Amino acid sequence: MNTDIHRIKAPFDAIKLCVFDMAGTTVNENNLVYKTVCDAINHTLQQVGLTDIQINLEVCLEFGAGKEKRQAISDILNEVCKYDNTATADSEKWTDAAFNTFKSALASAYTKDTVATFDGMLDFFNQLKQSGRKVVLNTGYDIQTANKILTLLGWSVGRDIDALITADDVHNGRPAPDMITLAMDKFGIEHSQQVLKAGDSGIDIEEGKNAHCGLCIGVLTGAQTHVQLEKYSPDIVLEKLTDLASLI
Q1: Which segment of 61-70, 164-173, 204-213 scores lowest on mean pLDDT?
Q2: CA 113 from chain center: how many Å?
């Protein structure tokens, strides 16, 4: 456990709403979604004859982690094609093709064998709720994918978590604060200093900062490294989300 965690004890005590990312933060899927994004983009690049441009998982995580998935694909393609004028001109068309490939592949990729909860997560949620805090999951996934993950885990809204908010529920995805603002509205939280946002990517931290959350926390169980997360100036980076249980 992070030995510095008690330095955030005072702001944590003021928290009434906890907004947690799903994949890589509360849900262990071993970066399956970004591996699927990577495969979909490479397949599309091959289909259009750009066999000299291929991406790896590291690039996907750096430029796509935490984002609504079509936006992630667009940003990754724009990055890898930015020095090719022809490719840049066609990137929107290729984004659509890669996103369609991704959606089809992801529908079969998530199974009971490829997704699990991190150890102690449900107990942690229960501790938070018993302390009077609301637990909300938010995600760059669409509602269909997010609900499939909850079903595979056996989690349900109203029992294990208080709400699920997806990219489909808002006009602007991360790093815009819309999903956090919607969560605040759902539970009548007027002051953003009473909100904690935690996630495994820099864009999660950026989202929390844009919402002026009282705590913005990075975790190391998913997409990005300590060095990558620190670039976004989180309040703290934890080995795992459940380390916060020591503050309850």
Answers
A1: 61-70
A2: 21
